[in-house]
Amino acid sequence: MMEYERYAQRKKMIPKKRNDMMNRKIIVFGIILLFTGIMLTPCIATDNARLKEILSPECPLIFVEEPGTLSGYVTDTEMNPIEGACIQVDFHETYREDYSDATGYYHVTDIPLCYCMKNATGSKPGYIPVSVSLAITENTIHDFILASTGPWLYVGGNGLENYTRIQDAIDNASNGDTVFVYDDSSPYVENIFVDVSITLLGEEKNTTIVNGSTNGTGEDPIEYFGIWIAADSVTVSGFTIEGCNLSGILISSNHTSISDIILSHNHNYGIAIGAMNTNQSFEQSGYNTITKCLITQNMGGVWISGHHNTITGNVISSNEIGIIVIFSLNSNISHNRISQDGTGVYLSGSYHTVLSRNNISSNDKGIYSMWTSADRILQNNFIGNNESASTFPGFFRQYFFKLDGQIPYPIRRNIWNENYWDKPRSHPYKSPGLLWFFIDWHPAQAPYSI
Q: Contact 259/280 with Cβ under 8 angstroms?
């Protein structure tokens, strides 16, 4: 009788063990589905409102439920308010504008929300106009700093009072002055430090050359850069910058505009924005713009940290890494041609980077993304890369950094949408990978004209 009871007891226990094992499997499977759902949810929404999408001939996606606004303050380089400055936002062959009041405040309204970058210009007679490309949201804030038009100082050329060194002219310049550099004395073998809000113009970008390969001791940090910009509201245009010991241009300030520059054969980066120490990147170097530059044959093309920096309309080619966005907030990267780099774009620790309408082609790897949050990769061309894009979310490390106070931003999913992936696709595009991957739910059927 006792043997029968023990046998019956064992028979009762078997279903219980099987149920326990099944419950464990369900729990594990549920956890996997949870993380997969976080990664793959095909939702496109803003932080503050769910927006309705409609088709438009000007822009494929326009959000019309709530229009966007742009507001902020207009000041001079001494931070005094400027009254009567015009702020104009151009888009879709039209514009919206507003004028600053006695406190310098302006508020431009009724701006359509879409994937297009908007060009915003602050201007007033007697001041140098400032333009910036912005991704407008419901409540975008941007401050304009306008430098007054001052005297011109000349470097090179035949003038009796012209300077022979660029640094000497800058040392004698004041806020709002323009330093014009002739190409007949090129190359200028200098390491230039800009600590005043000026416009620095080269006569012609192909022939006005700054060579930063000076034979310094390395004890002075300036010796590592072709041009180090430490003052706010500086404009630089019309140079070739090459051979620098570290980077061609370092921007450690705000509201700087770099355009029409060739940066090549620099030992580290063509242009570096913000702190090279990533522990202090977020609050440094904001609202800088890099446009219409050729950045080629450097170790890295562009390093971006800080906040609200814009890289648009550049050719970035034949670097080990084209663009590095690291511990950066609200970067805008658009309408660039990024090709023949080891990695086209490397994103790490960034928040709300908007990467749109770029031609990313013939790189070993188009985009590599890790530890990023709320980034938007929209309407880019991925053509002829050995690997178009890959991602490593690193949720646990992000949460650790968040709890430890090392990152100030919320942790949200990234959005990949309407990109062109080598060929027309009738189904959503999934990136390579079994566990860490993304899905573009609406891949483009033809490459964009960029």
A: no
Number of H helices, E strands in the chain: 3, 41
Could you tell me the residue ranges of all domains in the chain?
59-146, 152-440
**DSSP code of residue 415:** E
pLDDT score of 312:
93
46 and 67 Cβ atoms separated by less than 8 Å = no
**In terms of DSSP bridges, do strands 300-307 and 269-273 run parallel, antiparallel, or are they unpaired?**
parallel
Contact status, residue 111 vs residue 91, Cβ threshold 8 Å = yes
Q: Are 306 and 273 in contact (CB under 8 A)?
A: yes
- Measured CA angle at 431 (ends 426, 432), to 5 deg: 125
Domain range 59-146, CATH architecture: Sandwich (2.60)
Distance CA(55)–CA(46), nearest Å, equals 18
The whole-number mean pLDDT for each consecutive block of 10 residues of the chain, a chain of 450 residues, reads 45 46 46 41 35 42 70 91 94 89 95 82 88 84 88 93 97 94 95 95 97 76 93 95 95 94 96 70 79 96 94 96 92 96 93 94 95 90 96 58 56 89 94 80 93
Query: Measured between alpha carbons, how far is 50 from 259 in angstroms, rounded to an integer?
Result: 37
Query: What local confidence, expressed as pLDDT, does residue 150 receive?
Result: 85
Q: Give the Cα separation of 46 and 56 in Å (integer).
A: 19
Q: Which two tokens stand for residue 129?
A: 């106009």
Sign of CA dihedral 375, 378, 381, 386: positive
The whole-angstrom separation of Cα 429 and Cα 426 is 9
Supply 185's token pair: 């004395």
Among all chains, which residue has been given the structure tokens 């700087």? 256
Q: Is 26 left (phi over 0), alpha (psi -120 to 50) or beta?
A: alpha
Asked if 266 and 226 count as a contact pair (C-beta separation under 8 A), the reply is yes
Q: Please confirm whether the linkage preceding 60 is cis (ω < 30° from 0).
A: no
Cβ atoms 112, 68 nearer than 8 A: yes
Angle at 191 between CA 276 and CA 263, to 5 degrees: 70
Give which of 312, 196, 334 is closest to 253, Cα–Cα.
Answer: 196
Question: What is 142-172 written as a DSSP string?
Answer: --EEEPBP--EEEESSS-TT-BSSHHHHHHT
CATH of domain 152-440: 2.160.20.10
Report the distance separating Cα 354 and Cα 410, nearest Å. 16
Q: According to the model, what pLDDT value does residue 10 have?
A: 45
End-to-end CA distance of the chain: 86
